[in-house]
């Protein structure tokens, strides 16, 4: 009898038979599983008949049922044991699954339909190649002369002392070590400002009025943290900043939690706004693989995950400062001597889906039987399952499984994710990770558990074994292997307490968790920037990622900053239990929509409260309509009876033209155009998109010059360069020519648009880089023009070294060396070949015009003024030079070939930087006086005096007579159709005129005049011969 007593249970692993577990299951109450219920009834019936034959069973046991003896009995027993083990596994799995299957919401059931046991959830993105690419490995072995570090604009949503700031600060600080330079902007000030100032020299606090006044083009890329700067980056969604690399780092989930609310409220336009903002970013970076699922409503294919954040370690350490383990056990009803095993699963199944935990229970079934059935001297094992919410009914399901397995009451408990998760981790003695999912990122709850100093028992999932060493940082067991799990678990337990190995593993794991994912996070960011950003020719390439060693979160640095600023209020921060922070940009947009809806509702209510028209009002309205209709009919009848004289066609046409001129809207002129009347000079500001509008000036001195039809300023008289030069309709050549394309458009039939003796140009970038003319400089410039209205002189105010960051090196770098630096070391070569082809020079003659090394300034950013005739001469030279330069690229088979660029951006704007410096070569060798004007003070200083140029200028090549004859030769060839190639650029860049065209036009005018006289004589002859006869009326 003692042998058959249920009180005596063998705790050895071999005795944990699934057959005994099966016999303890009651009849299943789920009506959907009748087959299983009948099966259990049959088993119970068999056991009852066994008990009736008590004496026989005691005498022979089960052997009386089998007639086998000896070796046959041995083999038969083995086969029977294998069969019963497989059958028990299936029954146990289906039973547990049925219990958990009744829990969960509709969303969980929908997920279950697409998931099966052993399936894996994986975040896949096409952007993975941006991290796995070669980056700058090839460029580092190429010849390169860099003069400035790569510049990145960093926009912070806030400057708080929190784990998000710690992560980003660590990444940015290591990128700074590699050679990147950061310009830091922030939406609001905060206690972390001194910390960020160690990376950036000055931090700019942005306000809404200046969101659009930042020239993003001076940076190689923009890095944005948090959703808070959404309005500040609105200009990045407009030209000319649309192609600038933009990376958005999002670590908070507040917006994701509001998206479902927007969908319920029908605020689809608000979701569209956020989706449009997300689509502008080249990459949306998250630090956890669950975040893309939360933001899936805004996914446009640019989501990417870089695992690694100190938020879990931060949260655990702050929690330990204010909570003790024994008090937590007392709070949750756990005895101090109990050994608590916390069972957690995949982070994708925390909320509602319970299949993963059903598999977990099935895996640890033998473990539960061995440890959760006994209670030694007041010490017991408590298995707590951390999943779902407290109100989901999971606890009831676990208790049902506990009773079926015959476990001690209270040995299995449920703990909801909406409760104190840190408290559950802190009061545990062992954390068991029982998920069968192959995670992509290291489970965050394991990081917290390690920080609390809890030993881990984990399966051999690759993402875990990549960091956790078996026997050092935790105990690793092969999955799915219940026996191996039981053996691994037994290593941490000795006599109902934690073993020495458990304490050593917990200590090592705590050290590992502190900076476990730092190296991977920082290096992935560095590789990402190498593959996403474009590094111009004048940029010093950053160092290789391999130079980063011993990476760790900047815990010590942040702690010092907090101590210096006496941040004592940070001690009580609990990131799990804090209410949601109110991010202004999210709630401001919601409030705007709420106010709009409220106003609409009030207007509708007022309309409803107004009196409806009475019957008398309707009668009066009907009488008025009838009277107006009768009058209209009467007037039509009178007009039909009256005789009308339409008059001559010329009079009708003249009157129509006069009415068009009187139309105010079609001929409206703004205040600036009226003020320009009588002015001797007009400066055209060249821009290519709405993002450049805030940098443009207003007044009598300036006028806009738009390179895009759709991006012209509203209610202004800006010049449409595309309408004046059809070549700019082709985006390929518009990108190649840049600002020079706008100048060619103005020079094309210049008398139709510009009738002033002086003309000037200024790129919108001059204002963005603080080198545009101040009010004082404008007055000095106008005064100089009035005093000396004539003369071959060029005034410029944007210096080459100021713009491109090579100031301080002007005594070393010459004009051509600076041109090479800015154009991929190909400026001299390209200029020499283009100049040789332009003038048809033989190979033995030098074709590169010499430039002085006197240390003077050179013009940049197309910011200069000169007399209008000089401008037309310069445009004549530019057209031929551009055509010659284009022919060098047209002869190649590669469409993306560029002599003066290496990156994709430089190839797309291939001619821009060479043409930007072309005015210096032309002005120097055509003997123009070059005067530099300080843009702030207006002080003047002559550069490269003409007296010092003698003997160095190539005046014969820049003589106006020669250039004019070359222009006429090209025009004659174009007029005759004698094209040098299938595509010829020169005729498309401006007017085509030569003497033959003038003579042909004069001949056509003479022929038209003679034909008109002939027709007049014939008409007079007919009148004299036949007389004038009036047409009879009525025919």
Detailed description of the structure:
- The structure is a single chain.
- The protein has 1035 residues and is an alpha/beta fold.
- The chain contains 41 helices and 24 strands.
- The strands form four sheets. An eight-stranded mixed beta sheet has the order 19-18-17-20-22-21-23-24, with helices on both faces.
- The protein is globular, with a radius of gyration of 42 Å.
- The N and C termini lie far apart (135 Å).
Q: Can you lay out the helices and strands and say which pair or pack?
A:
Elements: H1 18-23, H2 34-52, H3 54-60, H4 71-101, H5 106-114, H6 129-132, E1 151-156, H7 163-178, E2 181-186, H8 193-196, E3 203-205, E4 221-225, E5 246-249, H9 254-265, H10 268-280, E6 283-286, H11 291-294, E7 303-305, H12 311-320, H13 325-331, E8 339-344, H14 355-363, H15 365-371, E9 375-376, E10 379-386, H16 394-405, E11 412-415, H17 421-426, E12 430-433, H18 444-451, E13 456-459, H19 462-465, E14 475-477, H20 482-490, E15 493-494, E16 497-498, H21 500-514, H22 518-532, H23 555-564, H24 584-609, H25 615-641, H26 649-662, H27 671-676, E17 681-687, E18 702-706, E19 719-720, H28 721-724, H29 731-737, H30 739-747, E20 758-763, H31 764-768, H32 775-787, E21 793-796, H33 800-804, H34 815-822, H35 827-839, E22 864-867, H36 868-890, H37 904-908, H38 912-925, E23 929-933, E24 940-943, H39 946-949, H40 960-975, H41 995-1026
Parallel strand pairs: 1-2, 1-4, 2-3, 4-5, 5-6, 6-7, 8-10, 8-12, 10-11, 12-13, 13-14, 17-18, 17-20, 18-19, 21-23
Antiparallel strand pairs: 9-10, 15-16, 20-22, 21-22, 23-24
Helix pairs in contact: 4-14, 7-22, 12-18, 14-15, 18-21, 35-36, 36-38, 36-40
């Amino acid at each position: 009898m003692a042998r058959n007593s249920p009180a005596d249970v063998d705790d050895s692993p071999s005795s944990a038979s699934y057959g005994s577990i099966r016999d303890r299951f009651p009849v299943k109450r789920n009506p959907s599983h009748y087959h299983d219920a009948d099966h259990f009834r049959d088993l119970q019936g068999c056991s009852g008949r066994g008990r009736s034959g008590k004496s026989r069973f005691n005498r022979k046991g089960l052997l009386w049922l089998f007639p086998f003896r000896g070796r046959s009995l041995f083999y038969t027993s083995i086969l029977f044991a294998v069969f019963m083990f497989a059958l028990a596994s299936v029954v146990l799995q289906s039973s547990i699954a049925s219990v958990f299957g009744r829990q969960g919401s509709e969303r969980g059931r929908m997920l279950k339909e697409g998931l099966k046991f052993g399936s894996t959830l994986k975040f896949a993105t096409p952007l993975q190649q941006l991290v796995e690419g070669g980056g700058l490995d090839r460029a580092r072995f190429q010849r390169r002369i860099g003069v400035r570090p790569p510049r990145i604009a960093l926009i912070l949503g806030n400057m708080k002392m929190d784990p998000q700031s710690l992560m980003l600060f660590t990444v940015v600080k290591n990128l700074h070590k590699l050679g990147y330079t950061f310009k830091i902007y922030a939406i609001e000030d905060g206690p972390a400002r001194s910390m960020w100032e160690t990376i950036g020299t000055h931090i700019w606090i942005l306000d809404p009025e200046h969101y659009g006044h930042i020239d993003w083009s001076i940076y190689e890329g923009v890095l944005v943290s948090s959703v808070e700067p959404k309005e500040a980056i609105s200009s990045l969604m407009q030209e000319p900043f649309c192609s600038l690399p933009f990376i958005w780092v999002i670590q908070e989930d507040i917006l994701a939690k509001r998206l479902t609310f927007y969908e319920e409220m029908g605020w689809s336009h608000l979701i569209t706004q956020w989706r449009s903002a997300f689509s502008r970013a080249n990459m949306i970076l998250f630090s956890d693989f669950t975040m893309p699922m939360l933001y899936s409503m805004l996914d446009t294919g640019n989501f990417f995950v870089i695992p690694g954040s100190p938020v879990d370690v931060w949260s655990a350490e702050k929690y330990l400062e204010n909570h003790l383990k024994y008090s937590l056990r007392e709070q949750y009803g756990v005895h101090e001597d109990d050994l608590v095993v916390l069972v957690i699963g995949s982070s994708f199944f925390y909320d509602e889906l319970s299949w993963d935990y059903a598999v977990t229970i099935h895996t640890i079934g033998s473990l539960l039987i061995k440890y959760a059935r006994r209670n030694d001297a007041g010490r017991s094992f408590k298995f707590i399952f951390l999943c779902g919410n407290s109100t989901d009914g999971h606890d009831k399901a676990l208790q049902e499984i506990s009773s079926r397995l015959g476990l001690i009451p209270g040995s299995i408990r449920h703990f909801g994710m909406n409760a104190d998760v840190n408290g559950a981790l802190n009061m545990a003695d062992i954390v068991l990770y029982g998920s069968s999912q192959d995670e992509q990122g290291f489970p965050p709850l394991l990081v917290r558990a390690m920080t609390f100093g809890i030993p881990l028992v984990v399966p051999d999932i690759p993402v875990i074994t990549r960091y956790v060493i078996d026997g050092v940082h935790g105990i690793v067991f092969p999955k799915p292997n219940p026996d191996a799990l039981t053996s691994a678990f037994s290593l941490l337990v000795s006599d109902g307490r934690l073993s020495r190995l458990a304490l050593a593993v917990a200590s090592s794991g705590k050290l590992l968790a502190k900076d476990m994912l730092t190296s991977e996070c920082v290096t992935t960011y560095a590789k990402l920037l190498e593959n996403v950003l474009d590094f111009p020719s004048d940029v010093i390439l950053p160092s290789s990622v391999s130079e980063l060693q011993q990476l760790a979160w900047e815990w010590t640095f942040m702690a010092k900053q907090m101590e210096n600023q006496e941040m004592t209020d940070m001690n009580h921060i609990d990131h799990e239990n804090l209410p949601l922070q109110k991010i202004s940009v999210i709630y401001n947009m919601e409030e705007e929509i709420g106010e709009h809806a409220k106003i609409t509702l009030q207007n509708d209510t007022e309309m409803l409260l107004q009196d409806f028209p009475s019957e008398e009002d309707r009668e009066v309205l009907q009488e008025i309509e009838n009277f107006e209709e009768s009058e209209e009919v009467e007037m039509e009848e009178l007009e039909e009876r009256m005789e009308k004289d339409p008059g001559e066609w010329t009079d009708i046409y003249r009157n129509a033209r006069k009415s068009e001129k009187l139309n105010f809207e079609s001929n409206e002129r703004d205040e600036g155009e009226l003020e320009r009347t009588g002015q001797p000079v007009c400066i055209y500001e060249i821009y290519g998109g709405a993002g450049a509008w805030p940098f443009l000036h207003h007044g009598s001195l300036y006028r806009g010059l738009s390179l895009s039809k759709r991006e012209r300023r509203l209610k202004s008289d800006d010049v449409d360069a595309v309408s004046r030069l059809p070549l700019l309709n082709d985006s390929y050549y518009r990108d190649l020519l840049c600002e020079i394309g706008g100048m060619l458009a103005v020079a094309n039939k210049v008398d139709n648009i510009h009738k002033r003796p002086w003309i000037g140009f200024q790129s919108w970038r001059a204002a963005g880089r603080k080198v545009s003319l101040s009010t004082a400089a404008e007055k000095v410039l106008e005064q100089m023009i009035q005093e000396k209205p004539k003369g071959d002189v060029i005034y410029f105010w944007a210096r080459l070294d100021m713009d491109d960051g090579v100031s301080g090196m002007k005594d070393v770098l010459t004009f051509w060396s600076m041109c090479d630096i800015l154009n991929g070391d190909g400026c001299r070569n390209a200029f020499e070949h283009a100049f040789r082809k332009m003038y048809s020079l033989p190979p033995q003659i030098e074709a590169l015009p010499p430039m002085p090394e006197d240390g003077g300034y050179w013009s940049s950013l197309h910011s200069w003024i000169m007399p209008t005739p000089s401008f037309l001469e310069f445009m004549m030279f530019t057209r031929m030079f551009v055509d010659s330069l284009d022919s060098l690229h047209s002869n190649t088979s590669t469409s993306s070939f560029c002599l003066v660029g290496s990156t994709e951006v430089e190839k797309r704007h291939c001619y821009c930087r060479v043409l930007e410096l072309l005015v210096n070569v032309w002005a120097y060798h055509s003997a123009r006086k070059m005067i530099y004007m300080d843009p702030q003070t207006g002080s003047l200083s002559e550069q490269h005096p003409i007296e010092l140029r003698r003997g160095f200028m190539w005046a014969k090549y820049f003589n106006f007579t020669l250039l004019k004859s070359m222009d006429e030769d090209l025009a004659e060839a174009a007029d005759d159709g004698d094209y040098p190639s299938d595509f010829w650029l020169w005729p498309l860049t401006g007017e085509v005129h030569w003497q033959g065209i003038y003579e042909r036009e004069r001949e056509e005018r003479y022929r038209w005049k003679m034909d008109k006289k002939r027709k007049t004589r014939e008409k007079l002859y007919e009148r004299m011969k036949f007389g004038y006869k009036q047409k009879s009326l009525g025919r």
